Amino acid sequence: MPRSPAHIVGGGLVTALGRGLPAHARALAAGLARPAVSPVTFMGQPLPFHFAADPRAEGASFQHMIETAVADALADAALPAAAVVHMGVFIGSTCLDLPLHEAAYAATYARGDVPAVKEPGYGNLARDIAARHAIRGPQYTLSTACSSSANALLYARGMLAEGRIDHALVIGAEGYNRLSLLGFAGLMLLTRAEYRPFDRARDGLVLGEGVGAMVLGREPRAGGAAIIGGATACDPSSPTSSSRERIAEVIADALDDAGVAPRQIAAIKAHGTGTPVNDLSEGQALLGIFGGSPPPLTSIKPALGHTLGACGAIELLCMLACWREGFLPPTPGFSQADAAVGLAPETHARGLGDGAMLCNFIGFGGNNTSLVLARSAGDERREAAPGERTPGPAASGTRGQA
Amino acid sequence: MTPLKIAAASTVLLPAGDAPTPLRAALKEFCAEPPRRINRMTELCLLGAHRCLRDLRPEPHCPLYLALTHGCVADSVALVQTVARGGLPMPVGFINLSSNMAGFYVASTLGIHGSNQAVAADDFSFECALELASLGRERGAQRLIGAVEECAWPLPEHHARLRLPAERALSESSHWLFVDHACAQPLATVQWVRRYDSAAAALAALARESWPDGGQLAVGAGLRGELGAWSAATGLAPLPPDDEFHSGHWTAHRICRFVETHPAPGLLHVSAGSHGCCAVYVTA
Predict the structure, then answer these.
(1) Contact A193/B at CB under 8 A
(2) CATH of A6-375 given 1.20.120.80, 3.40.47.10, 3.50.50.60, 3.10.20.90
(3) B233 and B118, same structural domain?
(4) What ipTM did this prediction achieve?
(5) By CA distance, what is A43's nearest residue in B?
C-alpha cells in the first residue's frame, strides 16, 4: 500500500474528563486521576470507575455519549452533505451494544417475559449511527478487545489510501456495564490501590467509559494531524497477554509503514494498562526498539480509566488535543520506576514539538496495534504564539530510561 | 480492489435442533489437539477453518478476518443473565466473550500471527471481511477469511430474540476461504466487491456489465422477490433462494459453496440492506 496519511479533519470526545478536545487537554495537563465509585461491588468492596455520565441511566447515557461525540466530530469536520452521505463508518468497541442489552434485561428479567440480548447484532451501533446522520457509505464494526478502535482507524486509513472511500467516520465507543466491570474484577486485573502504569508497585487498572469520534480524510487541515502509519498483529501465545517480541514486531512494522525511524519519534503514548505483566512486555518491547534513550513516554489511562475498545480513538484524540497545545501529558500515579520494565513515564506535562508520535494499543487475544501520528504540514498552531497560554507547562519531568 | 485468488474453501451448515450439535468429535478430525475451555463460537471457527485448510499450512504472517453477525450470542446471553441475577462471570467465560478470541484460537492452532480481525456489518459482514482482506496493507500472499454464526439455546427464546416465527428453521454456520495469491491453480477468484447506494442503482450498473455464458446469479434476503428481474437484466441464471434455514451468512455460504464446487464460470451475488446494496463477483 502506498504511504498515505489519513488526516484527522474532525474530532469529538466524551469521557470522564469532559466533552471536547480543549477540555481534555486542560484536564490531562493537570495529571489527576479521579475515578468515581461504581454501584458494583466485588468481594464486598465497591469498584471504582471513570464515569462519563450518570450510571443510573446506563443505556441512555451510552447512546447519548455516542450521539454527542459523533455530532461534535461531524460539526468539527464541516464536510458538505454530499461527502457525509458517502463516508464510511468504522466502529471499534468491545462492549458494542452490551450496555443497552444489560440495562434492558436488568429492568425486565424478573418478569421472565423477555429473552436476554434481544435483536443481537454486532453491526447495530454502526447501523443506528449511520441512520441518524443519513450516512449511506459502508459500515465496518471491528471488535478486537482493547485494540478495537485502533484497528478501526488503521483499516479506515487503508480504505482511504486505496481510494475506496473519500472520508471515514471512525468511532471508539465503550459504555459502562456490570459485566465488564465484574469480569475484570474476577480476573484480578483491577487495582486495589491506585492506577499507576509502569510503576514498581502497579497492581492493575481502573475501567472507564467514553466515546471518541473522528472524521478522517485525504486532505490536511490546519491545526490537525494525520495517522501516517500503523500495523497490527496477533500474538497467539496467550489469550490475555502479549510477548515483548510480538509487541516489538508490531511497533517496528508501524514505524516502517510510516517511513519513520525510531529517532524521529518525538513521544510515545504507551498502552500502559498498569498490570504487572503487560507493562513489563510493553516496556521491554519499547526498549528493544528505541534502545537506551527512548523518547518521552506517557500513559493517560489513569486520568481517563481504561476505556477498552474505545481507547484507540479516545487516547489518540487526547494526544492530539495536548499536542495542539504543545505538551505531552503526564502519567498520573507513577512515582517509582521498575528496573525490570526499564522505562519511566513523564510525571509532569512537558513541551512537545515537531515529529511523530507512536501510540500503542494492546488487547486480549494477543491483539497488538501501533499507530504513528504526526502533525499535519501547514499546521498553524504547531508553535505557540508569543504570550499564548498553554495548559501544559513545558517543564521537564522524569523521562526516558529508568 | 485486488482480486482474491482462492486456494481452498469450506462450508459448514448445521441445522439447529433441540440441542446443540456436538462439535468436538468432528473438530478432532481436522484439528488434532483442539484447545480446551473454548466456547461454541470458537469450536465452530476451528472446525470451519481447519476443514478449509486440511493439509495446507499458512505462512506465519497470514492475516485472519472473521465475519460475524450476532457474534458470541450464547455466551452473551448467559453472562448477561448471570450478572443480572447477582452472579459473577467466570473468568474463562468472560475472556472467551471477546469477539477476537475465536480468531485467536484459530491463529494459535495454525501457528499464524498476522492481523486478527473480527468484523461485522448490519447486512454485509462477509462482504466487509472480503473488502478488508483485499486491502494492500497486509504483508504476504495469503489471507484466511471466515464467516461464523452460532445459535443460543433454548431455541424458542432464540426465535424471539431474532424476531423470527417459531416455525422458522435455524442454523449455525462456519464458512471459510483461504486466499493465496501465489497459488498457481486457484479454485476460484473473488474479482471484486462493489457497493451501490440502492438496489436500483446496482441493477442499472450491473445490467450494463458483460457476464460469462452460463454464469449464475444469487441474491440475498433483501432481493428475493426480485430475482427474476435481476436474472432478466443480467442474463445470469438464477440460483433458487436458500429458504430452508434462517442464516445470517448466506452470502458466505453461497460464495464458499461456489468455490468448493465451481458449477459455473462465474457467480454474481447481490445483497440489499439498510444502507444500500453490495455485490460480489466470483469466477471459477
Answers:
(1) no
(2) 3.40.47.10
(3) no
(4) 0.96
(5) B88
**Beta strand segments in B78-235, E:** 116-120, 142-149, 171-180, 188-196, 216-219
Q: Which of B151, B180, B209 is the last residue of a domain?
A: B180
How is chain A split into domains, by residue range?
Answer: 6-375
Q: Check whether the bond before B154 is cis (ω within 30° of 0).
A: yes
Interfacial A residues in 364-383 facing B (CB < 8 Å):
364-367
Give the residue from A302, A297, A311 showing the smallest Cα distance to A362.
Answer: A311
**B174 CB within 8 Å of a chain A CB:** no
The answer to whether residue B77 neighbours chain A at the CB level (below 8 Å) is yes
pLDDT for the residue A59: 65
Residue B156 and residue B21 share a domain: yes
Q: Please tell me which residue of chain B has the smallest CA distance to A245.
A: B113
Which of B146, B180, B214 is the last residue before a domain boundary? B180
In angstroms, the CA A276 to CA A94 distance is 22
> Residues B153, B13: one domain?
yes
Q: Does B64 touch chain A (CB under 8 A)?
A: yes
Contact flag A182-B83 (C-beta cutoff 8 Å): yes
CB proximity B274 to A under 8 Å: yes
Residue B137: pLDDT band with limits 50, 70, 90: low
**What pTM was computed for the model?**
0.95
Taking CB atoms and an 8 Å limit, are B197 and A136 in contact across chains? yes
Number of separate domains in chain B: 2
Strands, E, within A100-197: which ranges? 139-142, 167-174
Question: Would you state the torsion angle of the CA atoms of residues B126, B132, B138, B140, taken in this order, to the nearest 10 degrees?
Answer: 30
